[in-house]
Amino acid sequence: MEESDKLKRVVEARMKLKARFEDKIQSTPSVADNKPLGSGNPNRHGMPVVPVGQVLTKKWPVLDLGIQPEISLSEWRLVLDGEVEHPAELTWDDFMALPQTDDTSDFHCVTTWSKLDMNWRGVRLLDLAALVQPKDNATHILCYGYDDYTTNVSLEEALKPDVLLAHTVEGKPLPKEHGGPVRMITPQLYAWKGSKWINRIQFLPHNVLGFWEERGYSSTAYPWRNDRYS
Ligand SMILES: Nc1nc2c(c(=O)[nH]1)N[C@H]1C(S)=C(S)[C@@H](COP(=O)(O)O)O[C@H]1N2
Ligand SMILES: [Mo]
């Protein structure tokens, strides 16, 4: 396919996805709740900057399953499959050739620490979805890490503009212990929804539980509803 045709297809698909999910996104709790639980001034999406039960930290703790996989850029792959029109397997160069987004957002860990104003660079999940085009029946994604971690996210959360597959933090390559070369971030959900060392995003016609969700963590993970466990 011609490069310009491909870009046109992606832009069209992005607009179509936006139209299809915009109402759902606008009615998610982190945008629409009128009695959110938390304290402080409104953040970027209108919620109290500190969600209920969270404590601010300047440090950046590391949480993992005891494995920190080492993946070189030449062996790194991102598989996009499941309920999509155009399944894909991206190399590092393919990934870096996609539109790049810079964003500042907050990070809320379910273990009660929050780190504010983190500066990220990466590819929007929305742009990855536009590339592969979720079928009409797709409702969720299941993300897989190179450490065999999994976590589920609904599409109305995953397609928010601040959900990135990030390769750079504070202007530097994402360190391995924080999920480098690439991790997902979900600033409007608890941070376990963002897989470190991400290597597969599977689009699904229904909700499927991930590693922590199978062990009693919430499927939805809304910080301003104290939605930690199910
Ligand atoms: N692949 C993978 N992703 C993961 C985890 C993990 O163990 N493996 N832990 C999750 C949890 S519980 C949190 S709070 C954040 C922590 O990210 P950090 O270690 O960069 O602070 O990553 C999430 N993503
Ligand atoms: Mo966590």
From TrEMBL:
Segments forming domain Oxidoreductase molybdopterin-binding: 69-212
InterPro entries to which the protein is assigned, alphabetical: OxRdtase_Mopterin-bd_dom (IPR000572), OxRdtase_Mopterin-bd_sf (IPR036374)
SUPFAM superfamilies per UniProt: Oxidoreductase molybdopterin-binding domain
Chain positions covered by the region annotation Disordered: 28-48
Name of the protein: Sulfite oxidase-like oxidoreductase
Organism whose genome encodes this protein: Paraflavitalea soli
Phylogenetic placement of the source organism: Bacteria, Pseudomonadati, Bacteroidota, Chitinophagia, Chitinophagales
